[in-house]
Amino acid sequence: MVRVRFAPSPTGFFHIGGARTALFNWLYARHVGGTFILRIEDTDRERHVEEATDIILSGMRWLGMDWDEGPEVGGRYGPYFQSQRDAIYGEYLEILRKKNKIYERDSAIYFRVSREPQLIDDLIRGQVYRTEEKDFVIFRSDGTPVFHFVNVVDDAAMEISHVIRGEDHLSNSSKHVELFRALGVPVPKFAHIPLILKTNGSGKMSKRDIGALVEDYRRDHFLPEALRNYLCLLGWSPKDDREIMPIGEVIRLFDLRDVNGNNARFDDKKLAHMNAVYVKNMSPERFLERAKNLLPGLGAEGDYADKVLLICQEKLRSFGELEHFISYFFDENFTYNRAVQSDLEGRDFVSRIREFLNIIGQTGDFSEQNLEAAVVKLANERGTKTGEYIHAVRFALSGRSVGPSFYKMVSVMGRKRTINRLERALEMLEK
User: Fold this and answer.
1) Which CATH class is domain 214-280?
2) Is a pLDDT exceeding 70 seen at residue 49?
């Protein structure tokens, strides 16, 4: 029976690297029908942050990762907080004492290593031999246990079959194998997944780097399924090189032997693009629901708000930019971007606005198709390109140079709002 665990320390953040480690454990458990355990390693009281456990639990739920055993779920191998497992650590310490594997020095308890080469048969990196040359502390002088000891004891007591963790823990593996063998328990299979490097590749991504925390993406209203999809690809990919994949398909294909041993570079632009694809592919109902939950004031705008939101969906990169992206649709006193105005000057854009204003009074229904046909006809008559009208009129209607499809925007704004805004723009520009 496959039993894997994610064992974070509650230090105040949910790092992208930790989330990816949790995800690979979760994916493997779901792929093979195993058990995924969440265990909180909170024995380091100096670094412990009280609310950090809630940050981790909430972040995992947000990313769609459930756990079979652990906090708020329970299980027969609990408790699942190391701070509550002192009696268990005492029992295992006594096993080492009886085997003469420990000794005391300066009030600290040391583990006596064998100094023999230890084989780590890694599922990702192959066979690695490491030798631990020095005895090491497993209980500090203040009586608190050290990470290496409690980590191994918990894995042994919880019958963990596979330890899937970051490559930076590979250097600890010889200590852990020594402890497993000294305790007389099976050594789990190891799988050390690649590190996540900074965007520029200069080193391991740390919590101080921009975009390194799951909380950053929750705050910026990214879609959790987009971030999860991206994290799946940091060190693993399907053999057909697909990228946008439903999580059920990832679970079906995921195998530790397909994880790449090379470090993975974090690409914030690729993540943003992936999020934009997920936003674009949301059902209209789900998109509208999420948008209105984020901006509840839109409810008072009725059908107009729904139309505005739906024409913006395909251009939106994240819900974090939604309010800014649509604000001018609902504010007649929007400001004009002076940099855009300067760029348009010299292109006779005021005349283009006037010409467009003249033809829309003669346009039948205000559909996208009719508006486009009218602009094409106007451009042909004036011997110019349709873009000259689109750029000028978009600026007059929104104060910006970018936005949703031009013809959709004008159609949704409607004849009256469009005429009023064009007249206001001309008044401003001709002063």
Assistant:
1) mainly alpha
2) no
Query: Looking at the predicted structure, is the pLDDT value of residue 100 above 90?
Result: yes
- For the cut 90, the answer to whether the pLDDT of residue 155 exceeds it is yes
Strand segments (E) across 8-153: 35-38, 102-105, 108-111, 117-122, 126-131, 136-139
| DSSP string over 144-179 | PBPHHHHHHHHHHHTT--EEEEEGGGGGGHHHHHHH
Amino acid at 114: S
Report the distance separating Cα 247 and Cα 269, nearest Å.
Answer: 21
Q: What is the pTM of this model?
A: 0.91
Task: Please say if the pLDDT value at position 48 is more than 70.
Answer: no
How many other C-beta atoms are found inside a 10 Å radius of the C-beta of residue 108? 15
Beta bridge partners of 126: 122
Q: Where in the chain is the domain with CATH 3.40.50.620?
A: 3-197
- Interatomic CA distance for residues 431 and 340, integer angstroms: 18
Picking from 196, 199, 254, the residue whose alpha carbon sits closest to that of residue 36 is 254
CATH 3.40.50.620 fits 3-197, yes or no: yes
Beta strands in 167-252 (DSSP E): 189-193, 196-197
Measured CA to CA in angstroms, residue 56 lies from 42, 71, 166, 211, 228 at distances of: 12, 11, 18, 16, 15
Tell me which DSSP letter residue 40 carries.
B
How many C-beta atoms surround the C-beta of residue 101 within 10 A?
21
The predicted-structure confidence for 5-47, as pLDDT tens digits, reads as follows 999 998 878 999 999 999 999 999 999 999 999 999 987 666 5
- Architecture of the domain spanning 338-429: Orthogonal Bundle (1.10)
| Beta bridge partner(s), residue 191 | 164
- Taking the C-alpha atoms of residue 322 and residue 300, their distance in angstroms, rounded to an integer, is 17
Q: What is the pLDDT of residue 288?
A: 97
Cis preceding linkage at 238, omega within 30: no
Active site residues: 207
